[in-house]
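Appendix C reproduces, verbatim, an entry submitted by the partner laboratory led by Prof. M.T., so that reviewers can inspect both the input and the predicted structure.
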Amino acid sequence: MAQKQQQNRKTRRTLEATKKKFIERTDCETGEDGVVYASFEAFDKVWTFPHPLFASDEWQASVDAAAETNIGKAQAVLGEQQWEQFQAAGGTASDVMIMFTDVQLTMQDEISGAGPTPPAGPTQS
């Protein structure tokens, strides 16, 4: 039994190590507040929102609750202050949804290994 427990410790994943690996694969930044952010450039400014893979349940719930309209969802994604600034700069809800969707699709590719640096595999000769 002791040998089996020792084996499990060698193969056991830790949440901290796994999150770190995923953060590195998605090329995200962690803010001073500990939140992992996705960012995009538009209207000569960088806009950020919590990366969906690492976002808090509260943020996820606010985005889900606002999902009836793209405007509501865009506001929930960026947060009220950034949303107002984004609109004032000429941005639309569709712009935010394009970037949000891109982050989600890119995340799936990067996590699965099909992203920019796929894992090495056997070569065909």
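The chain has six helices and three strands. Additional entries are available on request from the coordinating office.
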